[in-house]
Amino acid sequence: MSSPEDGFDEAYAETPPWDIGRPQSAVRSVFESRSFEGSVLDIGCGTGENALFLADRGFSVLGIDASPRAIEKARAKARTLDVTGEVCFQIQDALSLDDLDERFSVVLDCGLFHIFDDKNRRKYIASLDAVTAPDGHTIVLCFSDREPGDWGPRRISEQELRTAFTDGWTVETVESARFEINADQEGIDPSDDESVEAWLAVARRDNK
């Protein structure tokens, strides 16, 4: 059965617009401003910039992506860096996270939530249920409905985010943020040359 993530591997033959060669500033900010502890799962990790940043802060990080090319590039980066924590990368479908048979204190979704239609979004939230530890947190950085135009992924409203994390979750914060991009590719027409309107949400898994 095909996944919404299928087709992204071809994008990694070159440099996709979301691969900026550094961790997203919004991701850096949330981890620097809050006291998260424990293991981290980076879903849709791409070439590993966020995962490597977190590993360098001392976290034990598993980065997963459906794209073999992305994972290959992430592993190559990891081999060249001396990070403080542990980091590994593997190919994995985001809709089947229960295959990991592990729960994480922090789950990071940077740029994946907005690729799913309504049906697959429900599957995705169920998948997050399986890997977020009780009292653990899921962090989502996604495109916002405040970004004009119809290029790129679907726009997400604040209410959609809050509704998605209802049963078994407590949404702690939803804040306006920026999603940094490379705007040089054909078909990319952001309101800003370097970033687009985004939401940064933090949801806590209920203790059950």
UniProtKB/TrEMBL annotation:
UniProt keyword list: Methyltransferase, S-adenosyl-L-methionine, Transferase
Methyltransferase domain: residues covered: 40-136
GO terms classed as biological process: methylation
Top-level taxon: Archaea
InterPro entries given in the database record: Methyltransf_25, SAM-dependent_MTases_sf
Record GO terms (molecular function): methyltransferase activity
Protein name per the record: Class I SAM-dependent methyltransferase
Species annotation: Haladaptatus pallidirubidus
